[in-house]
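Extended Data, panel c. Modelled sequence:
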Amino acid sequence: MSDNEGSPKKSGYRLEYASSARAKCKGPKPCAGTSIAKGALRLGSVTDFRGNTTYVWRHWGCTTEKVLSNMKAQFTTADELDGFEDLNDEDKDRLRRAFDEGKVADEDIPESARKPAGDDAEEGDKTKKKRAPAKKKAEAEADDEEKPKKKRATK
């Protein structure tokens, strides 16, 4: 997409339904890199790639609170977002609710973005490993005295 294509609205974000399943999600892990299904609601952020203006896409459910706060700084209501008028009424309501609350509803988050249930327990168990206690100076000196020194090889 070049600078003069697309919608007449110029903003940093665009909402639309995916026209194909080729776009990859640029949202947070673990969803980053997964395909966005054809017809799924997606959010595009404007970026400059090799001198051309284009969008990087993410599932609507992968929209973070930070992205929503950035959108709120640019727009007073969700209705002002580029592509908003092309959405169906149900999705418009979801967008308005998320815009007002400052976060996407849990039911909108895709399965690919959800962490497996086992990962949460593992993260809690991952604590710093304890190191072996340092030897005291007296013990270290006693160990040095007991070991005979190796002789140097001579030529």
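Helices lie at 65-74, 89-101, 117-125, 137-146. This feature is highlighted in the accompanying rendering.
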